[in-house]
Amino acid sequence: RLIDLCADIGCDAVKTQWVSSPEALAARRKAPDSLAAYRLLAFPRTWFPELTTHSARRGLEFMATVYLLADIPVVAPYVTRWKLSSFEQEDEAMLDAMNADGRPVYVSTGMVEDDEQIVWRAGSHEHVELLHCVSAYPVPISEINLAVLHSGLYAGLSDHTRHPLTGAVAVGAGAGVVEFHLRLEDTDPGNADYAVARTPEEAREYVKLIRVAETMLGSGDRRVMPCEEPML
Q1: Strands 105-108 and 81-84
Q2: Is 99 exposed, middle or buried (0-12, 13-18, 19+ CB in 10 A)?
Q3: Nearest 5 degrees, angle CA 16-CA 20-CA 26?
Q4: Please, what are the averages of pLDDT over each run of 10 residues along the chain (232 residues)?
Q5: E strand or H helix at 130
Q6: How far apart are CA 159 and CA 166, in angstroms?
Q7: For the stretch 164-203, what's the b/e string if a residue is b when 16 or more beta carbons lie within 10 angstroms of its beta carbon?
Q8: What does the buried/exposed string (b/e) look like for 57-67 if buried means 16 or more CB atoms within 10 Å of the residue's CB?
Q9: Could you tell me which residues come within 8 angstroms of residue 92 by beta carbon, excluding any fewer than 6 positions away?
Q10: How crowded is residue 15: how many other Cβ atoms within 10 Å of its Cβ?
């Protein structure tokens, strides 16, 4: 249903999150209070063939965020691109393993003080692309700081706001990739992702505004536009 929703609202890809051992992730992050939330990510690995097949059937790339080094080879046969979360961005072993197979690796950069701390990730890993990210769920629009996208260091944005314009503004600031959270109407309000995830209608409007922004940006080549011909 989530894959169908992504296809219906005009996304290019769908990304899930997966962990083989919620207990190992809670221990890694020293976050025992998050164990229940991590257990929601531990769906059976036997689901992957159908998830990736259904994504392709709907014209979507399939991706997954993983959090444990041991999970990379499990997920590798099914994804077109990798995603590494802000919490794992400094794990060189995971970066090396993802970078090794030639697929793009998107790395979120939340909780980083300045650009100098993250430049090496893209510079020393051929396939790594950085996503600007603010790690709060949700992020106040006064703190999303989209102007950093003007630097050219970031491929795009991992968005945790709920504002309908954030993705469109990010595209205007130079983002070529926009990642956001969405949910179904009947999602449990107790789900840890609920507060940051857009409803189906919010997601539809969000993607529509991104497409409008892409259209308005155009090619960037200075020329006489067709609408100007009569005046010319």
Answers
A1: parallel
A2: buried
A3: 95
A4: 98 97 96 94 97 98 97 97 93 92 93 75 79 96 97 95 98 98 96 95 98 96 96 96
A5: strand 128-133
A6: 8
A7: eebbbbbbbbbbebbbbbbbeeeeeeeeebeebbbebebb
A8: ebebebbbbbb
A9: none
A10: 20
